[in-house]
Specification:
Shape of chain A: elongated
Strand content of chain A: under 5%
Largest sheet of chain A: none
Number of domains of chain A: 2
Number of helices of chain A: 11
CATH architecture of the largest domain in chain A: Orthogonal Bundle
Mean pLDDT of chain A: 91
Low-confidence stretches of chain A: 209-216
Number of strands of chain A: 0
Order of helices and strands of chain A: HHHHHHHHHHH
CATH superfamily of the largest domain in chain A: Tetracycline Repressor, domain 2
Oligomer: homodimer
Largest interface: A-B, 55 and 55 residues
Chain lengths: 216, 216
DNA sequence: ATTTGTATGAAACAATTGTTTGAAAGTCAA
DNA sequence: TTGACTTTCAAACAATTGTTTCATACAAAT
């Protein structure tokens, strides 16, 4: 574990950069939040840019440790994997373990900085490869490009609830938006996706038994 | 038409704020791009914040004038409307008439500033209401919340190609991403959505005759 | 030609910014 | 106890920032 001051700086940097971006976030504000001297950034990280890069890496670790994908066995059915994937990804979007970490990763995903391309790639690629593999199991004859298109449709639905949450809340109100909890959204995205894949009747194969529906 | 200097300032402000955000974008850089004196911002707009608000309104006008929705008649079938909606929205995302305008609106949608909430609402609401009305025609017995969920799934797919374009390019490469042109993405999203709605065989009803497929 | 109003510009201001510096305090090993 | 090393701090620096000011140029009306 790193130095406690360094850790607090990373935590504060993550929050400030998540809220305001690299240029909008100031070294002084980060140090104030971290309870550190303004010189500490240069002492521990070299300069503001290197702090930013470390903060993105820090956010990446927090995002991938939060809600892990289950360990599937070779005989886990692909529909089950698809259900698990959607549930995990939607949970990460709607109930992130660290909102600041996710927000910073979302910023980098929307507008990657050159220095963080590797971090973003390491964040996206494992998920993307798993989804591509699931879709290939479900559609062995499809071309790779079509599988990507399906994958983008699936991921686009999940990301909407994080990236466009203010829009959704604007349309249905904050109270209305609360009704779209993780379980309901997960169930909807899974059902929508299965319908698109021509597997509309297979929803139970995707869901765990304890997600028996109670909503009208 | 407003004063040419004022117009150039708005244009430059839109670009700079789109790229760097409100705090990251400086008055001096905007004026440099506009070929105007730094005092011009305060002369024409009062201060930086008011310039920002006007730039967002300016972007809003550009976005809504670019690719308009068709004027449907009362007997236009809902599947045709759905197809048109997806095509128009996807075109706006993949081939915006003004990339800077769209990027600034996307920024405001992802992280609305208090002063621009009305502008964002005016941007989103007409599209949202039209989509909600189309979905209601297609599913008269559905509850409003479920229609919203479907709407979010449709819009999430379209937005993905704008908001997560760097991710997609990271996964499939820039050259690979070029293959996902407007027609192909539109066709895919429409097909995906119809499948989800239990209307998988109705794709031709959504598409115009001249979009006869030529791709492999 | 003169007056009035508009637009532009250079310069200045106060505040903020990222970074550096040398001193002081704290910690650890010998 | 002493010396070496690490960490923290206040202060300072140069650069940038948003805004203001006053002078100048230009345009329009009389």
């Amino acid at each position: 574990m790193t130095d406690p001051t360094q850790e607090r700086l990373l935590q504060a940097a993550e929050e400030v950069f998540a809220e305001k971006g690299f240029q909008g976030g100031s070294v002084r504000e980060i140090c104030k939040r971290a309870g550190a001297n303004v010189a500490a950034v240069n002492y521990y990280f070299g300069d503001k840019e290197r702090l930013y890069i470390e903060a993105v890496k820090y956010a990446h670790r927090a995002c991938t440790q939060g809600t892990p994908l289950p360990n599937w066995t070779p005989d886990t059915p692909p529909l089950r994997k698809l259900g698990d994937f959607i549930r995990v990804f939607t949970t990460r979007m709607l109930q992130p373990s660290s909102a600041a970490s996710l927000q910073l990763m979302m910023r980098e995903m929307a507008q990657p900085t050159a220095a963080c391309v590797e971090v973003v790639r390491d964040y996206i690629r494992p998920m993307a490869e798993r989804l591509q593999a699931i879709l290939r199991e479900l559609k062995p004859d499809a071309v790779a490009e079509d599988l990507y298109l399906h994958g983008f449709s699936i991921v686009g639905q999940c990301l909407f609830y994080r990236q466009n949450r203010p829009i959704a809340a604007l349309l249905v109100g904050d109270e209305g938006f609360q009704k779209f909890d993780v379980e309901r959204v997960t169930r909807h995205i899974t059902a929508f996706t299965l319908g698109a894949l021509g597997l509309a009747d297979r929803l139970p194969d995707c869901l765990e038994s304890e997600t028996a529906e109670v909503a009208r």
